[in-house]
Design goal:
Blueprint (H helix, E strand, L loop, with lengths): L22 E11 L2 E8 L6 E2 L2 E2 L7 H13 L1 E5 L5 E7 L7 E15 L11 E4 L1 H7 L3 H9 L8
Parallel strand pairs: 1-7
Antiparallel strand pairs: 1-2, 1-4, 2-3, 2-8, 5-7, 6-7
Helix pairs in contact: 2-3
Length: 158
């Protein structure tokens, strides 16, 4: 059996609200420094814990494009999105202080070309580069820890 590469199609959200989906697209933003990968973490707005950018699916955008958009809004990232899901992690999202909404986040790699100083959520979050191993130690979600620990950008074609 051979796997055929197919182009990821945009998602249509015409039939419902994006919050009905309960799945999010997350951005594992990376760069190569001194021949070694680094990943970008940001702080959440509420608890200030270390996370990766993520958000709801967006109409007429692929998962990778949605992850790149979130990386721009939350961290000022300009870069290239890949349509290869690196893994999935689960967490509870608290909206307006209400009971946690169970969510799954699908993680897509983003090769960072630049970090802009002026972006929509500037001043609401911190951002910092880490080695994948140190980033894994900073996040809370066990599945995300594993995705970060095993991340190897050499497996991507860029």
């Amino acid at each position: 059996m051979t796997l055929q590469s197919t182009k990821q199609l945009p998602i249509s959200l015409k039939s419902g609200r994006k919050t009905d989906v309960r799945s999010q697209f997350a951005a594992l933003c990376f760069r190569i420094r001194n021949d070694k990968p680094e990943v970008l973490l940001i702080t959440s707005r509420g608890s200030r814990r270390w996370i990766i950018p993520k958000g709801w699916p967006m109409h007429d955008k692929t998962p990778g494009e949605s992850a790149l958009q979130e990386a721009w809004e939350e961290a000022g990232v300009k870069g290239k999105a890949f349509e290869r899901c690196l893994g999935i992690y689960s967490y509870n999202k608290y909206i307006d202080g209400k009971k946690g909404l169970p969510c799954v986040a699908m993680v897509y790699p983003i090769k960072v070309k630049s970090l802009e100083e002026d972006f929509p959520e500037r001043g609401q979050r911190r951002r910092k580069w880490f080695t994948p191993k140190k980033a894994a130690a900073k996040v809370v979600e066990p599945e995300l820890k594993q995705i970060l620990k095993t991340f190897d950008p050499k497996l991507l074609k860029y």
